[in-house]
Amino acid sequence: MAMTNRERLLAVLDGKSPDRIPWIPRLQLWHNARLAEGTMPTRFRGMTLREVEQALRLGTPARAGRVFRERYEGMEIVVRQEGTDEVTEYVTPVGTATRRRVIEQHLTGYADSGIDLVHPIQSERDYDIWEYVVEHTHYDPTYEEYRAYETKIGDDGLPMVAAGDCPFHHFALRLVGYDRAYFELNDRPARVERLFKVMTDVERERLWPVLAHSPARLFLHGVHFDSQMTPPRLFERYITPFYQEMSAVLHSHGKSLACHADDDTRLILRQTREAGFDMAECFTTAPMVTCTLAEARAAWGTDVIIWGGIPSVILEETTPEAEFEAFVRDVFRTIAPGDAFILGVADNVMPHSLIERVERITELVETLGTYPIRVPETTSAA
User: Fold this and answer.
1) Sign of the C-alpha dihedral computed for residues 84, 100, 138 and 182 taken in this order
2) Where exactly are the structural domains of the chain?
3) Does the structural domain 5-68+139-368 have CATH classification 1.20.1250.20?
4) CA-wise closest residue to 346 among 285, 272, 297, 258
5) pLDDT at residue number 109
């Protein structure tokens, strides 16, 4: 009897062999864009995203499960709209920090988040404010909400629960911005590292136990790590120790830890494995970045599950049909016999992707993806 996609995912997480390679791409942006433009293909009109996934014989990524909600004490959070900007003020007894994001309505369907224009930490005095915010943040379990979501997903997939980012990268991406983060680290190392410690201590004390004791199995923590923006030296100093400790806690409770790997990870493959990650989700490969699927398999073996392998650009008209076909076949050849692998699109099936190519991959999975995979050797294209 054929496995369900849920059973396939659990088999992969447990280091076992599925009946065939799971094929679970993210179709959200493509679906949003078709609705926004009114260009949904006739056969999918009136269908929900889940119904389109089922029609294409795909698993569902199931990324909306939550096991906690953040609660803030001793402060007021004010959110207002100013034109296309969303302004959030964190009003605390020690001062007010402000975040400003632009959310263009015409991008609805093409993007899944806004763009930061103003970050909460703009000057040295803002560090005290943000420390206060962190110290007064709590994580309330929402386990019943998660169980209801998992039931809704059913056999189509296994929820992957987003749980945040490590202090170093959250600081760089969200609190000060990449353009200032490394200047801050150079100019005020003690002040920055003190903030990292506060952030780590609060997560360790309040968040990790909520995750560890939750009914969820798979957690996503850590996003957009990149060879350039989180290079090996900084990764080893600030990221590896955090995740070695966090992953040990989760592993001791039978949980699995994934990072969102939709950047160029070629120079940090070893560091990703040593940090304790069980999975690299939305894993992106050449030609979108320099890292190849073969390089990742060589560096990780079966220690790190790859969820990805199909760069979104090959689903577009700019890639000739024959090149697309050869690329996908070579992916199967590279991952053979198929251990520790979930086929997906990095990072999304984009708005201009050809949905016929998604369907063609479904056909190839059903013909070539049976475990153990055996595909005749040809010239490599992946």
Assistant:
1) positive
2) 5-68+139-368, 74-135
3) no
4) 285
5) 54
